[in-house]
Specification:
Elements: H1 6-20, H2 27-38, E1 46-48, E2 56-63, E3 70-78, E4 96-103, E5 108-109, E6 116-117, H3 122-135, H4 144-163, E7 171-177, E8 180-189, E9 192-199, E10 202-209, E11 218-220
Helix pairs in contact: 1-3, 1-4, 3-4
Length: 229
């Protein structure tokens, strides 16, 4: 994908691997581990607007290969997905919506001169959101190798779909960002929904299950403390 840096791809693949190993991410542990890096970002974070009255929590943060610069991160709303082998009917599972903020970056050289990072785009946000939804998806118990094979297959599909974000697999959806209507690209699957679009200085992605995307609104997060729950 020419719009998504290898650094971003590697970070998400690592998260999928953790999901495949049957690990369960607790809300408190996630907040403790990632909250400090949210404050280090040189771009605004976005979450759901005040119409969302439910629980808010810190998701993951992705950095440049040297760990110095925050490149993207996610803020969760509702139930934190359980990542395990437990059987789950998506219609009966946990209800959540996760907003992914990706810094708007042009192509740039790594500080150590060892390579280049590609520019970010809406496709970057779509890829991260699609991979996040996969990592939050449970199935009936299966052998670990089969689970990893499924993740690899679906991750490749998510990559291809994000790279063709203007293609027929996506539809158009308009949602408010800081009160202003903004065009997004949207798709549904048996696992949930994914959307991606732009906001000032950043690219936005989101994914969820059990929560309708059609009634959501996004806003700049001015108080990260609201996610320390």
């Amino acid at each position: 994908m020419d719009a998504t840096s290898h650094a971003v791809g590697e970070a998400v693949t690592g998260e999928n691997a953790a999901a495949a190993s049957g690990g369960t991410a607790g809300a408190t542990a996630g907040a403790t581990a990632t909250a400090p890096r949210f404050a280090d970002a040189g771009f605004p974070w976005y979450g759901l607007d005040d119409a969302w009255t439910g629980r808010r929590w810190f998701g993951t943060v992705g950095t440049s290969p040297d760990g110095r610069v925050v490149d993207y991160g996610s803020l969760g709303h509702g139930d934190e997905p359980v990542r395990s082998y437990l059987a789950q009917d998506p219609s009966e599972g946990r209800r959540f919506a996760v907003v992914v903020t990706v810094a708007g970056r042009t192509a740039r050289r790594l500080d150590d001169g060892t390579g280049m990072l590609e520019a970010t785009s809406i496709a970057s946000a779509a890829w991260l959101a699609g991979s996040g939804l996969l990592a939050a998806t449970e199935h009936a118990p299966m052998e670990r190798t089969l689970r990893q094979d499924w993740l690899d297959q679906q991750t490749t599909l998510a990559w291809d779909l994000a790279d063709d974000i203007d293609g027929p697999a996506w539809s158009s959806l308009t949602l408010p960002v800081n009160g202003t209507p903004q065009a997004f690209r949207y798709r549904e699957s048996e696992y949930g929904w994914v959307l991606a679009g732009d906001a000032p200085g950043v690219h936005l992605g989101a994914y969820g299950r059990g929560v309708s995307a059609y009634g959501l609104g996004f806003t700049t997060v001015t108080d990260l403390a609201s996610y320390e729950q």
